Inverse folding.
C-alpha cells in the first residue's frame, strides 16, 4: 500500500507567512533601533541594516519610519488597554476601579523591558501620538466603564467623557514621567488615585 503524499503549503499560504515574517522582522529591528539611538536619530537604512531584507522590501510594508513607530506604539496601547480594562473589571470598589486600572498601566510600561526602553528613549515623540486611534479607543472604553459604574450607583454622576479623557491623559503623562524618572509605579499610582478619587468625591 503506497503512502499518501505529504501535503505542501499552498503558495498563497507561503506568501502570507513570508509577508508576516518580513513585517515582524521590520518591527523588531525598528524597536531595537528606536531604543538604541532614538526615533529622531534613526533612519530607514538603520532599521533595514538590522534585518536580512532589502531597502525596497521595507517600503512594501511601511511608507516611512514614523509609520513603524506608530505600529509599535499601537501594539503597546492595545496590550495596555487589555490589562487596564481587566483590572478595572476586577475591582470591587471605586478606589479599586481607579487604583487598579492605573497600576496595571504603569506596571506594564515599567516592568516590560522593551516597552520601558522604547518609551523612555522616545517619550516626547510618543506623547505627540496621544490622538492616535489606539489611545482614543482606550478613552472610549474607560468612558463606557465609567457610565456603567454611574448606572450601578458605584460611581458619582459626572461627565464621563471628560473624565475618561482626563484620566487617560493623566495616565499617559504621569506614565511618561515615571519611565523618565525612577520607574516607581506605586508613587505614580498613589498620586493619580488621590487626584481622581478627590475629584469624584467632590461630585457627590
Amino acid at each position: 500500500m503506497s503512502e499518501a503524499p505529504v501535503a505542501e503549503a499552498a503558495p498563497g499560504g507561503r506568501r502570507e507567512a513570508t509577508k508576516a515574517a518580513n513585517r515582524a522582522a521590520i518591527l523588531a529591528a525598528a524597536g531595537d533601533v528606536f531604543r538604541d539611538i532614538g526615533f529622531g536619530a534613526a533612519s530607514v537604512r538603520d532599521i533595514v541594516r538590522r534585518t536580512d531584507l532589502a531597502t525596497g522590501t521595507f517600503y512594501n510594508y511601511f511608507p516611512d519610519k514614523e509609520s513603524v513607530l506608530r505600529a509599535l506604539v499601537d501594539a503597546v496601547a492595545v496590550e495596555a488597554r487589555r490589562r487596564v480594562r481587566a483590572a478595572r473589571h476586577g475591582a470591587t470598589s471605586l478606589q479599586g476601579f481607579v487604583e487598579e486600572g492605573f497600576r496595571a498601566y504603569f506596571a506594564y510600561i515599567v516592568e516590560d523591558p522593551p516597552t520601558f526602553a522604547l518609551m523612555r528613549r522616545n517619550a516626547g515623540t510618543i506623547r505627540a501620538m496621544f490622538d492616535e486611534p489606539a489611545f482614543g479607543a482606550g478613552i472610549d472604553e474607560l468612558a463606557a466603564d465609567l457610565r456603567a459604574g454611574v448606572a450601578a450607583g458605584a460611581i458619582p454622576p459626572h461627565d464621563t467623557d471628560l473624565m475618561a479623557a482626563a484620566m487617560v491623559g493623566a495616565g499617559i503623562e504621569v506614565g511618561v514621567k515615571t519611565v523618565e524618572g525612577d520607574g516607581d509605579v506605586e508613587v505614580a499610582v498613589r498620586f493619580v488615585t488621590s487626584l481622581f478619587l478627590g475629584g469624584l468625591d467632590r461630585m457627590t
Observations:
- The chain has two domains: 9-63, 66-201.
- Residues 119 and 126 are 7 Å apart (CA to CA).
- The longest helix spans residues 11-37.
